[in-house]
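Ligand: arginine. Inputs:
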Amino acid sequence: MEKAWEGRFKEKTEEFVERFTQSVSFDKELAPWDIKQSMAHAKTLLKAGVLKEEEAEKIIEGLKRIEEEIYKGEFHFKRELEDVHMNIEAELTRKIGEVGGKLHTARSRNDQVATDERLYIKDKLLEVFSLLNQLRRSLVNLAEKSLDIIMPSYTHLQRAQPIRLAHYFLAYREIFLKDTQRFINAYRSSDYLPLGSGAVAGVDFPLDRFYTAELLGFNRLCRNSMQATADRDFILDVLYACGVCGMHLSRLAEDLILWSTEEFGFIGLPDRLCTGSSIMPQKKNPDVLELIRGKTGRLYGNLMNLFATLKGLPMAYNRDLQEDKEPLFDSLRTIKDCLEGITLVLEGISIKEDRMKEASGGFTLMTDLANYLVMKGVPFRQAHKIAGSITAYLIDKGKKPEDLTLEELRSFSEFYQEDALELLDSEKVADRRKTFGGTSKEELIKRIKVAKREEGIS
Ligand code: ARG
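Predicted complex:
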């Protein structure tokens, strides 16, 4: 097989070198975007007077045929041709003859590959946005349905204060909204056209790069040909956004795993989303959630991987940069799967309201018993101490706060009156948190309304 660069070589390439340097086994994923780019490049070359009308037409026609073959899975990528770019170019020339060789005028694989990657990211992120939108909407719908469900919140994984379950779902909706913003940032930093930068120094043909940008849907141009070909920071942005989002998915998955245990018993997972054990007949395992938690590791790894690759590279393009693709493809594939998975699980859970309510009482009410005294003028530190003594007393007696009588309360502080007993109800306690962003029903109704408006839910 002829190589595009064979002119200056006297020896046949060593088989090892072919195997070691090839990237086509993975960068063939870029093929649709490589073709799109080449079509725009042909049009730009036509506009620059480098190609004649019929030459550009022939090239675009040939590229369309290749695109179709790739789409149908009939295209045969050859390792000897190194990468996706040279595979497509070689096939173009095989199909349309010598004129195919004019396509690479005023272009280097260095600006070509950076352009493919940016195009690829922009399209893939649209899929990520749609999955994130779906997830956020599911969370808002769940919040609306669980407005009247009371549960304990946790700090240090110890029961803390009663909340409404809606508050939990809205917390994650807020978190995924921030993640969406991070992906938007990554999209923006990818939205610059490198093509027309050549190998490193720009090109000596009168290319109208603004025209190319318009054809390819880039809103901006890389303004320096060295930066254009050396820079992979936009990929770091994508990998970072994937890593952060993966971390959130992992934490959410962990809660759902815990909640689905017999010990918590807060939710049930649907059979269709669980798997069994090959040895223990009773098992129903939350494998989807565990894998969502587990895959976060590779998302972090991919970011570290590219960070390490980029460190110390001299200006401008270096072949090391070929190593940027596998982490990128892997992270985008992984985050899409995890987003799809978590949404499926969330939409399938059954909520065990009674268990949640039962767990929400007891010592989660103690903060409010302290605050009651504060409202009567007792300094918070002193009130905290008194409520602490009540806790110790209850533990000693093997009793719960709900069992307290007014006399018992008054033996700790004479400020306690009849209305203090109202604080022994977790629902009432939750509804006392009326501040902006708090868990009271009143506040949550407002937050759900805003969230629905923001998500376009009617
Ligand atoms: N496969 C290469 C990459 O992914 C394409 C660019 C190669 N450029 C070069 N001058 N060898 O980075």
